[in-house]
Amino acid sequence: MATRIQMRSPLPMPHTPEAPIYQQLAAHYREAIEKNALRLGMRMPSVRELMRRHAVSLSTALQTLRVLEERGWLEARPRVGYFVRNAGTPALEEMSDPDLREPFQAGDGHAGARFTGINERISLLVESGRRADIRVDLGGATPGEELFDTRWMNRSAAALLREQPGILAVGRSTAGTHPEFQAAMAHRALKAGMRLAPQDVMATSGNTEAVHLALAAVAQPGDVVAVESPTYYGLLQGIESLGLKTLEIPCSQHTGISLEALDLAVRTEPRLRAVVVVPDLQMPLGTLMPDGHKAALVKFCAQHGLALVEDDSYRLLVEAAEPPRPIKAWDVSGHVIYCESLNKTLAPGLRQGWMTGGRWHERVQMLKFAQSRNTNTLGQLLAARWTAAPAFERHLLRLRPRLRSQRERMAQAIARYFPAGTRLRLPPGGLSLWIQLPDGVSSSSLFEQALRQGIRIAPGAMFSNTARYDGFLRLSCALAFTDGVDGALRTLGQLAGAGRA
């Protein structure tokens, strides 16, 4: 069914001395966007900055921004500012934020922390996808092989093995973090605004292990962990496997986790011990948490003695002149446990990550050694050398625009094929899109129908302990946009149109 969602198209804008000043300025910034000097997701200069930079009045600065927004080159985010968007992308209607005043409730009438059984439910969905004959997989969030310089990676790996031929035959007697890896990650942390000593760095097998170790260090079975809602289903599984309870906190598309709802949670949940967030390109919403909100969240958790676990898996994929600073950069009390995954940006097959446990670091190290002993040295040394090489920065400069192109082409296809009432906010980076289906369309039902057509998606029910996201789904933009992907989206749109109540 053809969608009734409208597409914005760029209109010609005067760029002559006779044109009003605000139109001249708008044309100037439109040209900067077209030439990629201002890239998708970057923050535009504020009203005050435009006034100062161009010596114009408040009215002229406001008119400049409004014209660019009307033409589809900018999007306004309440209380945050204006951000660059591509006028060639569909102006799909955005979903609205939920009520941000209090935690979500589970089906039994109690706080969301009372729900159990997410492991079994998600395992059944995952297993259904594995058993099906999949021809187009839109359910994952791992970049495709074609996005990585595998020749460079293979050459450098071979060189390391020649340099240290016995590296795979030698184990380590400590928790397994190599000094070269510690030094490299501490240096990267400094560039991101964090001050860490090399010994504060502990290698992990990706972020799943890191976040699980963090929660095991700060909470006991029966304790409560606050999470963003919706959130990554692997986190929900991990919390349940530790015998902990999940409390879902509503999440704004523009600022991230609700501090108002979190404040209520602190006052009503005496066993609340930790908060877990993905501040940059939150999964699955794609939210970019503003600096002011990050600082306020750190201060809040320190005041209430809560561990703040930061999952930094996607920050380097943000479309910006410089990557945003992680939450840990505002931490002065040690209440932030920082976990970084290199899976999405460096090498998915390496499964390399690292963490620093703040005031709980020694306990995290003890748990790591008790549960999994060493993290392989080869992976650590490869990660240390790859991230320090100029080739890694060049890789990121290529990766971000390629992912942007894939996101935009998918958004355009969704606008063409999905039924009227479909909503979508294009995130400023990342590997996936979070989509709200029209009223009456169930993503769980769509998941089953799509599997029979050889298409795998991630239904919204996977991202919550509640049933509130059955009308949403996550689609991966991590693979190249091919005719097969376009056809799969057409099929999904037809199934969604047929499934309306």
From TrEMBL:
<dbReference type="InterPro" id="IPR036390">
    <property type="entry name" value="WH_DNA-bd_sf"/>
</dbReference>
<dbReference type="InterPro" id="IPR051446">
    <property type="entry name" value="HTH_trans_reg/aminotransferase"/>
</dbReference>
<protein>
    <submittedName>
        <fullName>PLP-dependent aminotransferase family protein</fullName>
    </submittedName>
</protein>
<dbReference type="Pfam" id="PF00392">
    <property type="entry name" value="GntR"/>
</dbReference>
<dbReference type="InterPro" id="IPR036388">
    <property type="entry name" value="WH-like_DNA-bd_sf"/>
</dbReference>
<dbReference type="InterPro" id="IPR015421">
    <property type="entry name" value="PyrdxlP-dep_Trfase_major"/>
</dbReference>
<keyword id="KW-0032">Aminotransferase</keyword>
<comment type="similarity">
    <text>In the C-terminal section; belongs to the class-I pyridoxal-phosphate-dependent aminotransferase family.</text>
</comment>
<keyword id="KW-0663">Pyridoxal phosphate</keyword>
<dbReference type="InterPro" id="IPR000524">
    <property type="entry name" value="Tscrpt_reg_HTH_GntR"/>
</dbReference>
<dbReference type="Pfam" id="PF00155">
    <property type="entry name" value="Aminotran_1_2"/>
</dbReference>
<dbReference type="GO" id="GO:0003677">
    <property type="term" value="F:DNA binding"/>
</dbReference>
<dbReference type="GO" id="GO:0003700">
    <property type="term" value="F:DNA-binding transcription factor activity"/>
</dbReference>
<dbReference type="GO" id="GO:0008483">
    <property type="term" value="F:transaminase activity"/>
</dbReference>
<dbReference type="GO" id="GO:0030170">
    <property type="term" value="F:pyridoxal phosphate binding"/>
</dbReference>
<keyword id="KW-0238">DNA-binding</keyword>
<keyword id="KW-0808">Transferase</keyword>
<dbReference type="InterPro" id="IPR015424">
    <property type="entry name" value="PyrdxlP-dep_Trfase"/>
</dbReference>
<dbReference type="InterPro" id="IPR015422">
    <property type="entry name" value="PyrdxlP-dep_Trfase_small"/>
</dbReference>
<feature type="domain" description="HTH gntR-type">
    <location>
        <begin position="19"/>
        <end position="87"/>
    </location>
</feature>
<keyword id="KW-0804">Transcription</keyword>
<dbReference type="InterPro" id="IPR004839">
    <property type="entry name" value="Aminotransferase_I/II_large"/>
</dbReference>
<keyword id="KW-0805">Transcription regulation</keyword>
